[in-house]
């Protein structure tokens, strides 16, 4: 597998030979971790359409085994850019987003409405052929930082939404509509559960917390007892296990919800929870 310096050398050699590339910024500068040898770059170009060709980077960085064009599948995530996400035979991943100067500066200055944690928010300029860019360096990730305390209205509305999607999750499970049930558990329900957990972690820490992409740092940030319960919210496709996961979610929501409410100084809506659990129990009996 090629080293970081080898990757940087081959990228710089490639762009120096390409007159259309005027500057290069390395992005997503978080530490490389085990099993993740990924390098991301923004190329500032003066001919964006040249990079709409899938073969443009086919051979210059090594033997490519996969090309995924993110801009073609999700254009709203890559406005004004051509995104080449590539995997190479030696285990290296390269992501190259080509764009013009104004598009890059809009992203760097956080002017884009669509936040994209997959691109990251760390930048370091490594080449500028014409000095067209200002100083570009930001080495601290900000998109995954959480520092939010709910108002009573937001907290109550979130609890109401949670019990609505829990009801819907239960209905799909009772009808044995597995794809819909698992979607509701792992998207609709989990999004709200994770929001409550983020509130709890921030309130306990008393300072902004880096949650990681898609809350990937929950295991290290959450108390052992709570994370052990959180793991029980992931079932197999067996319906008995799905109901066990439902109960684990409800138990965890109650524990953490009460802790958040206590920290914020307002009551937890216990009556709503009791009535919704009774409602769902009656659904199971019919």
TrEMBL record:
InterPro entries: Aminoglycoside_adenylylTfrase (IPR007530), NT_sf (IPR043519). Pfam families: Adenyl_transf. This is Streptomycin adenylyltransferase. It comes from Butyrivibrio fibrisolvens.
């Amino acid at each position: 597998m090629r080293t970081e310096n080898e990757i940087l050398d081959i990228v710089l050699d490639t762009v120096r030979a390409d007159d259309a590339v005027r500057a290069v910024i390395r992005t997503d500068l978080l530490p490389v971790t085990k099993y993740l040898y990924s390098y991301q770059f923004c190329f500032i170009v003066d001919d964006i359409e040249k990079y709409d060709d899938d073969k443009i980077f086919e051979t210059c960085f090594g033997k490519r085994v996969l090309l995924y064009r993110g801009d073609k599948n999700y254009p709203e995530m890559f406005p004004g850019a051509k995104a080449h996400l590539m995997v190479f035979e030696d285990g290296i991943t390269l992501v190259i987003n080509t764009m013009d100067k104004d598009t890059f500066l809009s992203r760097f200055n956080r002017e884009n409405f669509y936040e994209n944690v997959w691109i990251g928010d760390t930048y370091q300029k490594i080449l500028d052929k014409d000095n067209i860019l200002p100083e570009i360096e930001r080495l601290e990730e900000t998109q995954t930082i959480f520092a939010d305390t709910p108002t009573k209205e937001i907290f109550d509305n979130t609890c109401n939404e949670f019990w609505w999607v829990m009801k819907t999750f239960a209905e799909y499970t009772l009808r044995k509509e597995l794809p819909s049930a698992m979607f509701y558990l792992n998207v609709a329900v989990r999004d709200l559960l994770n929001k409550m957990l983020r509130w709890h972690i921030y309130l306990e820490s008393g300072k902004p917390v880096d949650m990681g992409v898609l809350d990937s740092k929950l295991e290290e940030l959450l108390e052992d007892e709570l994370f052990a319960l959180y793991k029980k919210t992931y079932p197999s496709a067996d319906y008995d296990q799905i109901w066990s996961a439902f109960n684990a979610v409800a138990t965890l929501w109650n524990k953490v919800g009460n802790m958040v409410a206590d920290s914020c100084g307002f009551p937890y809506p216990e009556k709503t929870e009791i009535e919704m659990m009774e409602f769902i129990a009656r659904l199971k009996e019919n």
